[in-house]
Amino acid sequence: MNLSFYIILIVIISIVALVATLLLAGKSDQGYNDAPKNNIKGLSLIYIVTILGSIIALAVYIIFFV
User: Fold this and answer.
1) Could you list the pLDDT tens digit for every one of the 66 residues in the chain?
2) Exposed e or buried b for every residue in 5-40, given b needs 16+ CB within 10 A?
3) pTM of the model
4) Within a 13 Å sphere around the CA of 55, how many CA atoms are in the beta-carbon half?
5) Element containing residue 48 per DSSP (H, E)
6) Gap between the terminal Cα atoms of the chain
7) Separation CA 57–CA 18 (nearest Å)
8) Whole-number Å distance between alpha carbons of 50 and 59
9) CB within 8 A of 39, min separation 6: which ones?
10) Residue 15 CA to chain centroid, in angstroms?
11) Where are the domains of the chain?
12) What is the rounded CA–CA span in Å between residue 66 and residue 64?
């Protein structure tokens, strides 16, 4: 398969993802505003884990590849 096939496939997937995102953006979770404290705790945990994982990955990269 040639390069133009892959480019067309990426464009189609991107358009489908954009349409799906826009369709879902109009819908809201009814219980989201009822529990902001739990939402903040969950998001904070995600950020902490992501930042720590990134720091560990950077350290491994520096130690073994630089």
Assistant:
1) 677 888 888 889 999 988 888 787 766 666 666 666 677 788 889 999 999 999 999 999 999 987
2) eeeeeeeeeeeeeeeeeeeeeeeeeeeeeeeeeeee
3) 0.47
4) 6
5) helix 36-65
6) 37
7) 31
8) 14
9) 32
10) 17
11) 3-25+37-65
12) 6
